[in-house]
Amino acid sequence: MMPVYFPALTYLSLYGSNIVAIPESISRFPRLIELEIENCMQLREIQGLPQSIRRVTARNCLSLDPQSSNRLLNLIGDILGLLPNMVCECSRRRDPVSSRKLLHPDISSSYWLSSYEDFEFEEDDYDCDFNDDDYEIRLPGTEIPYWFNHQSIGDSIYFWVGRELSELAVCIVFGLEGQIGPFNCQVYLSINGCERKLKSLAFQAMMSDHRLVFCKPYVELQRLLKCFNLGDRNHAMVVCKISTLHSTPTISPIIKRCGVHVVCCPHKFSNLGFDTTVSDGFNLGSCSTAHNLLNDDLDLYPPSKKMRRS
């Protein structure tokens, strides 16, 4: 049996360090939930991740090689195959000064605390629930993985769903017209005209186009869906909105593209006329049941599945 390291560690920050590679040995951190590697300009390789990981923030890791980027994106894809069978865990809320956190020596506790103060949530905002249980990846790049069965140019995308929805993941591509300052991104889910906030995030300065990929655990998704009155066939839409984080003028990014991976219960659609195939192009009106599309070699974009550019 391989030894485990830091068995109580749930959060690890290497913010701004000169690290070149995340070693495979990090997979032996049995309870690591969140890895922060922002502004690690020399980071090129991620050799492994623990099974417990939920969030990786790789903002401004511009040297990251394609295989490592694919490994991060595959993290969400792998999770999607497991979500319907997962048991809801009573996850503990993270304490910013918890002894279970390990920060890079250059990061003071005051910096960590101030980063949480940038979040602006409403008191009655159930939908966000501080996003504590979401699976989330932030990293440079512009490609949406091909297993996102709905893709659209711009900040919104629509699709059809049935009465039961087992998987929902969202990918957003932020485009820059220059180096930007801090900003907020709000993601809303609308079904049959009823809208709920799906996620609320704060971003710091970026130096290139970036991607956000997230999905909700199965139990949390079902909890959210109870807010909607679902019929056999429902018109759904995901809308993304950006606002600046502070009152001082800053350059805001644009949302270039967005994608949704959605899976409904297959037996519900035999007579509803839903297309259950994955298109090579921008599929905007179906609910796909094809979700085991990840390749063993971590190639998210094989030639036969390349998305057409507009």
TrEMBL record:
Chain segments annotated as transmembrane: none
Keyword terms of this UniProt record: Leucine-rich repeat, Repeat
Annotated coiled-coil segments of the chain: none
Protein name: C-JID domain-containing protein
Pfam families associated with the record: C-JID
Domain C-JID: 139-263
